Amino acid sequence: MNKQEILQEYKNQEERILVARVLDKLEFIKARNKIESTDFLNLHEQELIQTLLKKIHFENYYFFGGSEISERKVAIFYPEKLNKQMCEKNHKNIMTIIRIQLPKELEDEYSHSTYLGAIMKLGLEREKVGDIFAKTTSADIIVKNDIVKFLVQNLSSLTRFEKASIEEKNIDELAKATINKVEMTAIVASLRLDNIVTVLARTSRSKANDIIEQERVFVNFKLETKSSKQINEGDIITIRGKGRFEFKEISGNTKKGRYVIKIEKYV
Predict the structure, then answer these.
(1) pTM value?
(2) How far apart are CA 106 and CA 133, in angstroms?
(3) Can you tell me the distance from the alpha carbon of 132 to that of 113, in angstroms, rounded to the nearest whole number?
(4) How many domains is the chain built from?
(5) Angle (nearest 5°) at CA 175 between 139 and 78
(6) Among residues 137, 153, 173, which one ends one of the domains?
(7) Does one domain contain both 259 and 200?
(8) Whole domain around residue 107: which residue ranges?
(9) What average pLDDT does range 10-30 have in this prediction?
(10) Is residue 233 predicted with pLDDT exceeding 90?
(11) Of 36, 58, 88, which residue sits at a domain end?
(12) 46-67, pLDDT tens digit by residue?
């Protein structure tokens, strides 16, 4: 199967462009015997590439985002003469951390959206930025190496960061990310995915189905497009634009036979 035949299978223009770029990188690997990587990918894009590589029987790759809990990751491809362990030494040549340390008067004032909004205000593309690990006093922002100098120079020009300390750090210096969760209780008629999304996205059943059809929902980091899929205790549900959630348990039933469930939202 050649490149054009593969691309014809993708009707979505953005998906076709991403697949074409990946196929080009695989050609570069064969020609140059060097490591290649993508920009940062969301969960849907990671699933798309994984399916493509399985179809063409390419196995020399892995995803990396800086941390074990990173959601946004780059795909790293390597030639047969190398292995994953050898490639891991190359991470510093792919991505870097920008650490923003806030002054005392701004502690507890900024969130993930504050930092992301600042970066987008500078006109950068989202795929150049990985996960943002925000704490009360600071944030570690994972970025592609080709935008590091630009960001360090320009973030300090923004009013919100004019008193902050902004510096470049090696990816190995990423502060240990902590996972914060907020527990919530909900009542659902069944454990179908569309019922769960209705609760998590705080929307109607019909709009929940639209969200699923728009390929915005992932169960255990795998794209899921079936509204009828049954959700089990321990499943991780990610809704692009809404967040990530863990279905903890069924804590009881109402008199009408509905399920009382406990869910934890990652914050």
Answers:
(1) 0.81
(2) 17
(3) 9
(4) 3
(5) 105
(6) 173
(7) yes
(8) 94-173
(9) 92
(10) yes
(11) 88
(12) 989 999 999 999 999 999 999 8
Interval 202-217: pLDDT, tens: 999 999 999 999 999 9
- By the 8 A CB rule, do 237 and 211 touch? no
Q: What is the DSSP letter of 25?
A: H
Work out the average pLDDT over 12-36: 93
Distances from the Cα of 84 to the Cαs of 54, 78, 87, 121, 252, in angstroms? 17, 8, 5, 36, 46
Residues 225-232: contacts with CB under 8 Å, at least 24 apart: 226/193, 227/192, 227/193, 227/194, 228/192, 228/193, 228/194, 229/192, 229/193, 230/191, 230/192, 230/193, 231/191, 231/192, 231/193, 231/196, 232/191
Average pLDDT value over all residues in the chain: 92
Strands 222-223 vs 236-239: parallel, antiparallel or unpaired: unpaired
Residue 140 has pLDDT above 70, yes or no: yes
Pairing of strands 138-144, 165-169: unpaired
End-to-end, the C-alpha distance of the chain in Å comes to: 44
Q: What is the tens place of the pLDDT at every residue in 103-129?
A: 999 888 898 889 999 999 999 989 999
In the sheet with 222-223, reading across from the earlier edge strand, the strands are 181-188, 259-266, 243-253, 236-239, 217-219, 222-223
**Cβ contacts of 118-124, under 8 Å, gap ≥ 24:** 118/155, 118/158, 118/160, 118/161, 119/151, 119/155, 121/158, 122/150, 122/151, 122/154, 122/155, 122/158, 124/150, 124/151
Q: Alpha-carbon distance 104 to 252, whole Å?
A: 45
Q: Which two tokens stand for residue 156?
A: 């300090």
Report yes or no: 74 and 40 within 8 Å, Cβ to Cβ.
Answer: yes
